[in-house]
């Protein structure tokens, strides 16, 4: 079985899972964060090189204040132990998204986690926090425009590679497989540029119920796709 080099997941269904359990939404997010930990171990064991999760979007700030506060508390807890956790499986931890406006203590934790794991050579785990793909592209285009204005880049030299290099994922390959849980079948402003040739796998399972069995099912489905040169082969 060929294991995808880069797997991205839209974590969906934490709140619905919690509601079905008769629990508050924060309980679902906590359980979901535990599944993320498990998946990091499983992905590393399978030989996945890059694992990216959509954890908190730019639109998620509109959720109830108590829910946002609970989610941010989980991020802080995760980042405080990220270096120790990453050392167990030689994992590099990084955060993608717009850091503008994040609380300073959270920014400090992000910097500490990234700096403390940057030399690890195993799987790269990317946490999309305050991330929106349109915003990412806007920031990238703004940077390219600045370089053109400064005279360090000619407009005629702007290529797809230069655009890719301006994005948060500049040093990573594009995802081979995208998984979205909880039955939804949309991208929700996630990695729009990077997913151009990615295979999409949708499952009805809520994220807290996602496990190794379901991951292997997705990878087996991926292996059944007819791909050539990293792109889906055109049908005759």
Strand order of the largest sheet: 3-4-2-1-5-6
CATH architecture identity: 3-Layer(aba) Sandwich
Count of folded domains: 1
Mind summarizing the main beta sheet? 6 strands, parallel
Instruction: Give the overall form.
Output: globular
Strand content: 15-25%
CATH superfamily: Decaprenyl diphosphate synthase-like
What does this structure look like?
The protein is α/β, with parallel strands linked by helices. The chain has eight helices and eight strands; from the N terminus they run βααβααβαβααββαββ. It has one domain (6-132, 173-232): Decaprenyl diphosphate synthase-like (Undecaprenyl pyrophosphate synthetase), CATH 3.40.1180.10. Residues 232-236 have low confidence and may be disordered. The strands form two sheets. The chain has a six-stranded parallel β-sheet with strand order 3-4-2-1-5-6, with helices on both faces. A two-stranded antiparallel sheet has the order 7-8.
List key phrases describing it.
236 residues; alpha/beta; Undecaprenyl pyrophosphate synthetase; 6-stranded parallel sheet; two-stranded antiparallel ribbon; 8 helices; 8 strands; 44% helix; 16% strand; disordered C terminus
